[in-house]
Amino acid sequence: MSDLGGLPTMSVVPSAAQFHAHATSTFFTTLLLISFTLLLLFYLRRRQKVNKETSSLRLPPSPPGLPIIGNLHQIGDLPHRSLHQLSLAYGPLLRLQLGSVTTLVVSSPAIARDVLKTNDLSLCSRPDIATWRRYSYGSLEVALSPYSPRWVSARRLLLTHFLSPRPVRGLSAAREEEVRTLMNTVAAAAASGHTVDLSKSLMSLVSCIVCRAVFGKRFAPAGESSMSEIGGVLCLTAEILGGFVAGDYFPWARRWLNAVTGVHGRLERSFKEWDDLFEREIKERERAGTGSSEDGTYASVLMRLLKEEQSNKEGGLTRDAVKAFLWDLMFGGTDTTVTTLQWAMAELVRTPRVLARAQEEVRRVAAGKSYVDEEDLPRLSYLQAIVKEILRLHPAAPLMLPHECQQSCKVAGYDVPAGTRIYINAWSIGRDANLWDKPDEFRPERFEGSSVNYQGQCFELVPFGSGRRICPGILMAEWVIWLTLANLLHGFDWALPAGVRREDLDMSEVFGLVVSKKEPLVLMATPAKLL
After folding, report:
1. Contacts 24+ apart (CB under 8 A), 127-130
2. Long-range own/partner contacts, residues 368-374 (CB < 8 A, 24 or more apart)
């Protein structure tokens, strides 16, 4: 510094720190400009190529989009609702450009039939999504992997050994024991005058049932319905899979985008937790020897199959494939089942008429019993109608897992080029006023005497999908849902906490891989006076 008139002044020559800061700022500004220019050039070139390829095709209606991002800006925090509004304006088959991904959105049962049945083989693949590929050990599991002969074999194995009627029935004792543990936990809260956080209790229940089926143990304190170590891993995974991942919409920049947004790091941490769990359980069974295969758990069955294939040198089932199956079995039905139960109890306490009728049916069928057994469930027709109505009104996955076109075809008279991503908006179909009388109302009676079901042949109710990609765990899910609801309604009278009116119960949603209730469901339980 120099002294001019007694006032200190900065030297016209910058310091090393100033020079470094200026250079850094200039470098990043230049890098940003270069990146944006390259991105724009890539977009214009790709757009020109796409326009040339599709100029002769008959494509579905599409709202105008913006350069580079396409229609992404028109998708809000609740995409199933945003897409529903767009479908009202542009039709039940909607074409969107989400970043660089061409997407179709289906919002009518007739077009859903065209996608899931008529063109099932052409449209039954899955897109290549980085998070999916990681959790599936490089596309070795069933739910998230692209269609291939290996996928067909994997699905057959999953159904035959784990999700067909015989193995599902074999888990009835575990389901009933865990539901009774939940009932004891609720009874303890009721006796002390405390509220019950059903959201947390239901997650504990379902995760314990799944853990017992897969590993033969609960991962939670004995006799308690409390969150286990698995619950945290499940929640984190659902958050990652259900969140917005920029790389999914700009595949050519996926690695860079997932790194700078932190997705890659979170994904690897979550994946490692799963992998460590699976490796620990596999090694435990390897140490135990062949006798462990007789316990009937999913993990032991997989280890037996792995050993048999290694002995026969077939090589179709690898250690990573075993882990991929374990991930499918652990994650596949947990969040969706919990969410369905949560919405069901919320709607029931908001609708006393339905709650009273459901309780009358359950208590009549299970008269003289402390608990409802699985043998009672087929006689609970009104309860089953309630479950159908919940799956219509609150499908756990309102935007079914996306399909990808593997060979060009026509849907509803429009051309669908290979590589197109397709979403079925089950939420929109369930709210269609042309299909359902007063579609926003919770009215289980609409299903009484109706042949409509969710087994994949009625396209006005497709919460589990249809065709080759129908959820293989339907049977397991419905038995857990029926048994849990039946017992909660049989054993307790339910009410909102003091000071909370029915109309004030928060029913807002939070979007993810499944759409769950934004706020926990907290209720008061009073032990029922059973005859």
Report:
1. 127/101, 127/248, 127/402, 127/404, 127/421, 128/251, 129/245, 129/248, 130/245, 130/247, 130/248, 130/254, 130/258, 130/263, 130/267
2. 368/531, 369/490, 370/491, 370/530, 371/176, 371/179, 371/180, 371/183, 371/487, 371/490, 371/491, 372/483, 372/486, 372/487, 372/490, 373/176, 374/172, 374/175, 374/176, 374/479, 374/483
Say yes or no to pLDDT of 478 above 80. yes
Dist CA 305 CA 172 (whole Å): 24
- The partner residues of 495 in beta bridges, in order of sequence, read 524
Rounded distance between C-alpha atoms, residue 514 and residue 398, angstroms: 7
Alpha-carbon distances, residue 166 vs 169, 425, 485 (angstroms): 5, 32, 23
- Dihedral-angle region of residue 17 (phi above 0 means left; psi in -120 to 50 means alpha; beta otherwise): alpha
Which of residues 222 and 61 earns the better pLDDT score?
Answer: 61
Length in residues, the chain? 531
Annotated binding site for heme: 471
Domain boundaries of the chain, sorted by first residue: 149-527
Which pLDDT tens digit goes with each residue over 344-365? 999 999 999 999 999 999 999 9
If pLDDT is split at 50, 70 and 90, which confidence band does 198 have? very high
Six token digits for residue 179: 């539901």
DSSP-based three-state secondary structure for 487: helix
Residue 410, strand partner residues: 415
In angstroms, the CA 338 to CA 481 distance is 8
Instruction: Tell whether the model's pLDDT for residue 299 goes beyond 70.
Output: yes
Provide the percentage of residues in the chain whose pLDDT is more than 90.
72
CA contacts within 13 A on the Cβ side of 246: 14
Work out the pLDDT band at 255, boundaries 50, 70, 90: confident
Residue list, annotated binding site: 471
The CATH number of domain 149-527, selected from 2.130.10.10, 1.10.630.10, 1.10.3720.10, 3.30.390.60: 1.10.630.10
Whole-model pTM: value is 0.88
